[in-house]
Amino acid sequence: MQNSASNLQTQAYELIKNKILRAVYPPGQKISEKEIETDVKIGRTPVREALIHLRRDGLIDVIPQSGTYISLIDMHAATAARFVRENIEKKVVMEASNQITPLISDSFEQILGQQKLQIERQNVAAFFEADEAFHRKFYEITDKVLVWNWLQIVNIHLNRFRWLRLKITDLDWDMLTDQHQQILNAVKNHDIDEAGFLASQHLHLMLEEQQTLLAAFPEYFMDTHE
User: Fold this and answer.
1) The domain boundary residue, chosen from 14, 44, 70
2) CA within 20 to 30 Å of 161's CA: 17, 80, 151, 195, which one?
3) What is the value of pTM for the model shown?
4) What is the tens place of the pLDDT at every residue in 137-175?
5) d(Cα 220, Cα 223) in Å, to the nearest integer?
6) Average pLDDT over residues 61-73
7) Residue 169 is part of a domain; what is its CATH number?
């Protein structure tokens, strides 16, 4: 019974978190436990526990005598997360350049193929998942999945921004896959310095369109006075 309850709580947490990350529950929206229960079709206790967890993650705000709200996107936190990830992932990609094999290379090409398919389909969710899979693969082959998992906690506001950016701007998805291909080619050629440079350059683009989104949806973002 305890495992079942824990599984339901985890399921509720992932469902609600993904709806927040993908702005199905937009920043600033007022929510209620009852509405969430109905939406995710999971009972009261797992949903309540999931909301407590999401509040600790900074995705839910509880305002006394007002209610529970989806937190606004914190661009200061997103910028800091980009800095951390750019510096860590550059090193991970460089290390991967010494560990790439034909079999691993094939798995990367399959992920790139999936990205290109989702571009044709204009499937934002599937494209985002394939994009994440490409980056995560470097952490897998360098035995740093734990680091990737840590980064997902730090990256919460960055990923919210990235999702919104993919969803509502005329972003060149082909440019992203082209950059992935260039990084992979450098890794396959064991060109460590080039791989690191390309990875850093690619990750630096994560916050492009910032002013466009801030101007279009000012109500979605915290006022950081930056």
Assistant:
1) 70
2) 195
3) 0.87
4) 999 999 999 999 999 989 999 999 999 888 776 778 889
5) 10
6) 93
7) 1.20.120.530
Inside any domain, residue 226: no
Alpha-carbon distance 129 to 105, whole Å? 19
The number of folded domains in the chain is 2
In this structure, what token pair is assigned to residue 208? Answer: 């492009």
Q: Is residue 15 part of a domain?
A: yes
Asked if 161 and 73 touch (Cβ cutoff 8 Å), the reply is yes
Same domain, 58 and 11: yes
